[in-house]
Amino acid sequence: MSRRTPRNVLDRLRTSRHLFGFLKSASVCVLIAGLLSPLTQTAVAAPRATASNDYCGGQCSDILPPGENGNATLAQILLNQAFGTQPSHAEDQLGPYADLASGYAGLTDAKINTFFADASFGVPADQVASSEKPAGRGDVTIVRDKKTGVPHITGTTRYGTEFGAGYAAAEDRLWLMDVFRHVGRGQLTGFAGGAPANQGLEQQFYRSAPYTEAELQGQIDSAVAKSGARGQQALADVNAYIAGVNAYIDASDSGRYFPGEYVLTGHKDAITNAGTIEHFKVTDLVALASVVGSLFGSGGGGEVGNALSLLAAQQKYGVEEGTRVWESFRERNDPEAALTVHDGASFPYGGKPAVAQGAAMPDAGTVTEEPLVYDRTGSAATAAARKTSATAAAAITSSARRGMSNALVVSGKHTASGHPVAVFGPQTGYFAPQLLLLQEIQGPGISARGASFAGLSMYVELGRGQDYSWSATTSGQDIIDTYAVELCQDDYHYLYHGTCTAMDKVEQRNAWKPTVADGTAAGSYTMRVWRTKYGPVTYRATVGGTKVAYTSLRSSYLHEADSIIGFQMLNDPDYVKGPQDFQSAAQHINYTFNWFYADSQHTAYYNSGDNPVRASGVDAEFPVWARPAYEWRDWDPAVNTAAYTPASAHPNSVDQDYYISWNNKQAKDYTTASWADGSVHRGDLLEDRVKKLVAAGGVTRTKLVQAMAEAALTDLRAEDVLPNLLKVVGSAAVTDPAVADAVNKLQAWVSAGARRTETSPGSRTYANADAIRILDAWWPLLVKAEFEPGLGSDLYTAFTVNVPVDEAPSAGHGPTGSHAGSAFQYGWWSYVDKDIRAVLGQPVQGGLAHTYCGGGSLGSCRDSLVGALKQAAGLTAAQVYPGDDQCSAGDQWCADSIAQRALGGIKHGRISWQNRPTYQQVVEYTSHR
Asked: Which single residue of 697, 767, 769, 817 could bond 8 by disulfide (Cβ 3.0 to 4.6 Å)?
């Protein structure tokens, strides 16, 4: 597949090329620059130099590229597009972030804030850039620092504090917030334009969260009602936050310094100021939360795809042997997998039942995807638009969800200071403006600094409190099940507990026309979702000849707002005073995340999510019948609640020697929804390094940052799989000169550390460039040569649907798309590793059901690998890296490089590849309250 087709839906949302020609007009810049410059903030008395409630001792740091300022007036957008100038604080964190790739080797504790920003509470008096009283309020002050422009919000009342948080969020991310409230409602194209990318984005999220306005409001009402005083406080906080957002909208509108994208998309007139920026309301925040939860916190799905590959395996091998083969590739509970909780504790969930009950496997050849888009007109009816729809549908129905982020946490028992050290953060992709924003909030019942998703920043979601820090990675345990509802009467009625029941039809009609920002021709369509009590319809098929609709039921469906209580607790210094309190707060978050904690004395971990208790015998890997016997225990379809596994059943730990997470398996016997949690996983890049540091002792912030940074530049395939591949190739003399040259280059690269790094900072040329090119070309060829002959074409193809073969940094076909940084999450590295070790006669735990390379013969396996290697070595750089809208063909560095995907009018340059969190903290607390 061409690299021009990114797989991450957010990577597909971008500023139209039609914008650039218009923006080069200097005369337009001159005309409106004076009109749209932001007002100067009022100077007030400087705050205290440092905060007395900060127990980190100057040893907390963080970074969030490209910069805090995500708003730009029309004049600033025009200047950026024409001349490359940047608004203040729009990209001042991008350079330090990028520089770590070349600077980590010489890092010291004193140099950490060369690559990160000081995350201490407060702003020293000589570092105050501005201070304002939003809307003239006397109960809140927003101070911004000179270095990064981060808002430090201090309130004397709870309402004023949250009002200030909303005001500051709108100052930094108003356009982005507006975009995503429309995404969450499936209304993006009518707001931002009908580009195919925008069509795909709204289709993906509407398919998974097709809420009515009443249902959005109902989720707020439900979250508040069941949470007592904390629920009431959350609602008050949300209302104050929204009031702050709307106050900024009014001020920027009347002052004419609102984001310029509103002009470029036709919502405002640059000359007359005609037009409206709609005020935010409570339900907008629920819509925003549904987008975030769907992207990062909803593990599961893929049951129909699992069923199809199992049927293909059984067709190839017979039922019993085919099932054994399928299970070996699924790797539900692989004994060689890297674990976050590695002390031997077992947390059984999602395992294979002894005797499966209720399975509703489709009849061969009968599965069809449920259409979403109807009544296409104009540009919505083009082939490109239809292809975009297919991509969006595949993204939401797969179990290979976007799982990002990493964490390295070491107990004080193994550090030089005796205090825990942590380096952690979420990998949320690279965008301009960034999805997250930074802030510090200090007020009654709130004391925190860190990152929050734009539009949901009434609390810090990942960051630090007075004497503790916390962060998260995506966990991916299965909270989504597929039910087969038996149809009756027609295709839009189904049996519910024996009664023929009408499906609920929900529709969203969208239409667009060309704008300056998006010249896509006029078009329209209707998105239509058929909903049942068991969730929205995703596929149709027959099961044993009976017509069914497959539906998708997510435990967080209709509960997008519930997690607000957990975040409120994490921000409350009177609630979180130690690791057990932290775990208690995380238990109130219903999305699927791994949560990590560090203070001056303790570390902790907790896996969150509403894990439904399934009926006995139900195998969560496959569709089951929609019948009472197979429903979630105590399930109430009216409000989508059920019995959930208790907190003690979730992987959790306090003061383990160290924790690592890179979306790997959480604990023994705990099954995640994604495939290939096996012997080689990108989590091993952290596990191997941190384990070595802990064994040596004396871990420091510097050493842990270096471990993260080195892993961020390492090719997983080259470090953990390539050495054994070369052993097979070298098991006999290599006589072909081209193959011998390739082997020598690959071996030299492995010996040099298997990293993808520049020859020197800014060279834009890789050291070991030929070896990297050869492996990038060889990997997909060797996987096919190794497995397809034994599996057969049909089963091999089915398995590649369950988990892609490769996700190299330049691989546009991977789930995260090109130029997204994140790499090596999904791939066949574990399968290749186990298979090649078996061929070499090495011990393998949890091996594949068969030995595939050369049918188990070392000589035949070698012939297959050598043939594929010879083919790969002959491919030119232009063939391996064919170019895309960012890079010319053959530009290897550029193909890997990270691009800040434009979600607005400001653009930034590319940076060298790193596989690391987008927002990242480095923390070591020196004392405790």
From this structure: 817
